[in-house]
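Dear colleagues,

As part of the handover before I leave the project, I'm documenting each prediction I ran so the next person doesn't have to rerun anything. This entry is a single chain, and its sequence is reproduced below.
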Amino acid sequence: MLSLVRVSCVWALCFASACSATTAPGAAESVAASAVAPFASFEIVENDQTGDATLAAIRSSDRASRTPDGKLIALPADELTRRAGVFAANRLFTEAREYWLAFLEKYPNHPNTSAALFGIGRTFYQERQFNQALTFFERGVQPAYLSTKEGRDCFYYLAPTLLRLNRASDAARGYEQYVEKFPQGERVENAYLNAIDTWREADKPDEAARVITRTRERFRNTATATNALFARLRLEISQGKWTNAVATCDELLRSNLSKETSTTRNEIYYLRAFSLEKNGKKDAAVQAYALIPDDLNSYYGGLATERLEKLSDAGRKLSDARQVRVRLAAMNATGQYPAAFRDEILRSVRGRAVDPRLMLAVMRQESGFRPNLKSPAAARGLMQLTIDTATKYAPAAGVETVTEDALYRPATNLLLAAEYLAQLGKMFDNLPEAVAASYNGGEDNALRWQRRATHDDAGVFTSEVGFAETKDYVLKVMANYRVYRTLYTNNLRPQG
């Protein structure tokens, strides 16, 4: 049997993209963020926690372990935590908490108490019940627990929980307290970087600048120092300090932009061109946008082509030539961008303000068009929906009952996803980058990134996306979306 430490670590990995504060650049990506080739053989991707067979066995054991009035019988500590871990990994949070609470009641002095408290806090956090999450994280930071990883995780998670309770200053101080208390802690680099953005969200840019300087000194000549410099660039852009922003872009372009950094050369080129444009230097901006190569996989190249079209006659000529090349490349790649499940998609979007081509763009990234796909994070089907998300949107979608098995059925999966995307479109005024970011990283996070951006520009928004996996997801979905808009009409017929 798995110990609680093992269970909680596996479960934490499954939910890293959706639950954590800013994910470290280069972190492992979920299956959803590394979609496979279209129309590969159908399969179900499982791990030892989220396999459908494992879940069915746990449910059977659960039924057999109850008294006639529904109470759990006494079980060994490892069995309680094993079942809690399986339920949590499958996003059945209420069931997981029941087992963890039973563990805490029966084994209050067990070495894995802090892991149980962290697990309960994380389930509440994932459900956006932040007051309840805070209660359990606070219980987990007793001095006796701080020698454990889960105790330190409880301490760390006080900060993002406070942030989501609209206590940004307290959250920023919480990140800095983690740094002071655990200078070699597992999350120390993220704590520095999150403190910067959280001070921004507290509308205290001077504090953010102070932590930027401190971070660059503490992690000199590392990817973390470069990420702090990128944080300075985003701060300057949000403040409209265009000359400073251009200078910071130039400094970043002289830096070592490794895969551990949270930005890319093309993103910096775009932000530099945007800053020049905003500073009234249109000719220089045209030259800067033209430096960004445009192809089917270049998100910032596509944005640069759009900006060039609006800037000047010279820019329009460059834009026209770039668009011709991309359209030709898209036509040559038609077989890689099928209008799969066309009829089901069109039925699902009927009456909803959802572009069916965006559905295809998301589906291509999420599942590679495989209806039977299941991710290690318990997401299922064509649009990789989790049971909690599906249940949330089922009433508005007109779906009476949602089961895990139903999510493998294309018509049900697409209908629920269409309703989800429709609601996100309303929330984000149909900014597709924000919709994609929310679909992968959560709407509360996407709203924060949108507020930080301050400028109504898709590329600036994307630069603020704080999870490495989610930013990569946005880039890929938006590249897909551009190709689908090139190839198909909004009723998914080939463009003439």
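Confidence is low (pLDDT under 50) at residues 1-46. The chain has 25 helices and no strands.

All the best with the project,
I.
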